[in-house]
Design goal:
Layout lengths: L2 H26 L2 H18 L9 H29 L14 H19 L3 H11 L5 H8 L3 H22 L2
Helix pairs in contact: 1-2, 1-3, 2-3, 4-7, 5-7, 6-7
Keywords: Sigma factor, Transcription, Transcription regulation
Organism: Cytobacillus purgationiresistens
Family: Belongs to the sigma-70 factor family. ECF subfamily.
């Protein structure tokens, strides 16, 4: 990049940097996270500066980049939260001791009961759930294999879980 672009960018940061940081902080309410996102915004803006439309206002452009970075962060955070809600049980804690034989037997019986309840679901719900939880395929892989849109697979997964949940709860009573 030439020196005039760098000088222009530096002037923009000097003029709008403080307001940009306050804006990001108002969205995320966490100082360290706001600092990280601020750095990401500046990097993205610097890299995209040659394609910047001079007719647009720089401040609006920077704030739009900041909003998009915050949305990306929230999306990642939501995915991580979903991991803990749905998948963390698949991993074992390295510090835990091996389950006693009775617990293993109970877990195996419970898993067999869940598999039985799963097998009783209609095929459109059973197949994506089975591929996701037992064959560890991603939703995209299931979508490609079934030759169906990803949104259809997501809907079938949600509906399948909704149909399976009361049956599983009933088993544990």
């Amino acid at each position: 990049m030439n020196e005039s672009i760098e000088t222009y960018f530096e002037a923009c940061v000097c003029e709008h940097g403080h307001a940009l940081f306050r804006y990001i902080y108002s969205l995320v309410h966490h100082k360290e996270l706001a600092e990280d996102l601020y750095q990401e915004v500046l990097i993205s803006a610097y890299l995209a500066l040659p394609s910047f439309n001079e007719e647009a206002k720089v401040k609006n452009w920077l704030f739009k980049i900041a909003l998009n970075k915050c949305r990306d962060h929230w999306r990642k955070e939501k995915t991580a939260k979903k991991f803990w809600e749905e998948k963390v049980h698949l991993y074992t804690d390295g510090m835990s001791t091996a389950p006693v034989p009775e617990e293993e037997c109970i877990q195996k019986c419970h898993q067999e009961e869940v598999e039985q309840q799963l097998s009783e679901l209609p095929d459109i719900y059973k197949e994506p759930l089975f591929l996701f939880y037992y064959h560890h395929q991603t939703l995209v892989e299931i979508s490609n294999e079934a030759n169906l849109p990803l949104s259809t697979i997501k809907t079938r997964m949600r509906r399948g879980k909704e149909k399976l949940l009361p049956k599983v709860k009933q088993m544990s009573l």
